[in-house]
Design the sequence.
């Protein structure tokens, strides 16, 4: 019996998206090699590296990140459409040695982005690889939009957080979908949780940026009245939006395999916790290994 064409739909999730690396490693250990890849946001970044044969280099770089070296990637500055200019991300992708054009990747690939003017879902399947990935990862309010092909593009997760439809458009007959945000469904922000204050991280920021990460509003005796910081508000809002859109999209177009990562201790901006996320990616594949083998190794 002919094996189905296996496709990957790698979802958005910021730093939690490092779990995609663990998923890919574990699938490889099982003897499964996806033939097409579609990704939104962080899923596009990891997916492009995989399609280019650069996953080893990306994993090494991700695992090496510390709070201090993150500052070379999160090049924060006030002004424009986001807190982060994105040049650090562009430089990192270029340093990986990615093929210049998407059509030159070893595997068919789509990076999902969103047209800011029209709200349309944009499938970037040809053109400059680094620019396309940079457009797909443009988290609203955090990372500046990308001007590409005469339009402003933002994060693909705003319209298609887990792009099963894009993977099928590339010819996938069996889709493995990965959702890095499963732990956030229904519990998007806790006013008693100081995690988003990130005191170690903010110590390295200019004074004018520190209050964006930890609210300087007075704390109320009733924790529910504590005002969220700017970053807490943005990330919780994106998680809420992505969860609702993901549920709707997947209800109408479910994948053959759904892998839900539970990374409740990791925020969208904890890029220095790649080890934890990669381990979770491996775990969620092992958890469904029998079902995956039954459906995809036939």
Sequence:
């Amino acid at each position: 019996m002919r094996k189905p064409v296996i496709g990957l739909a790698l979802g958005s999730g910021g730093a939690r998206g490092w779990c995609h690396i663990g998923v890919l490693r574990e699938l490889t250990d099982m003897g499964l090699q996806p033939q097409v890849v579609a990704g939104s946001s962080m899923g596009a970044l990891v997916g492009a590296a995989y399609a280019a044969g650069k996953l080893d280099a990306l994993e090494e770089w991700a695992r090496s990140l510390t709070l201090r070296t993150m500052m070379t990637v999160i090049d924060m500055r006030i002004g424009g459409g986001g807190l982060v200019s994105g040049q650090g991300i562009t430089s990192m992708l270029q340093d990986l040695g990615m093929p210049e054009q998407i059509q030159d990747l070893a595997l068919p690939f789509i990076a999902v982005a969103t047209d800011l003017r029209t709200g349309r879902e944009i499938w970037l399947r040809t053109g400059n690889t680094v620019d396309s990935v940079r457009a797909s990862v443009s988290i609203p309010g955090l990372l500046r939009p990308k001007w590409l092909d005469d339009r402003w593009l933002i994060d693909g997760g705003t319209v298609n957080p887990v792009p099963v439809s894009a993977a099928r458009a590339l010819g996938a007959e069996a889709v493995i979908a990965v959702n890095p945000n499963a732990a956030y469904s229904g519990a998007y922000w806790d006013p008693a949780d100081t995690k988003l204050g990130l005191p170690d991280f903010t110590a390295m920021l200019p004074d004018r940026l520190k209050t964006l990460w930890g609210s300087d509003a007075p704390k109320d005796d009733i924790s529910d009245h504590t005002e969220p910081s700017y970053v807490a508000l943005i990330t919780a809002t994106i998680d809420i939006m992505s969860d609702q859109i993901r549920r709707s999209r997947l209800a109408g177009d479910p994948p053959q395999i759904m892998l839900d990562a539970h990374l409740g201790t990791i925020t969208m901006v904890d890029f220095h916790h790649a080890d934890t996320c990669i381990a979770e990616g491996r775990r969620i594949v092992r958890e469904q290994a029998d079902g995956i083998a039954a459906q995809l190794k036939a």
User: Anything to note?
Assistant: The longest helix spans residues 230-252. The mean pLDDT is 86. The radius of gyration is 18 Å. Strands lie at 6-10, 36-40, 82-84, 109-115, 121-124, 141-143, 146-147, 152-155, 174-179, 257-260.
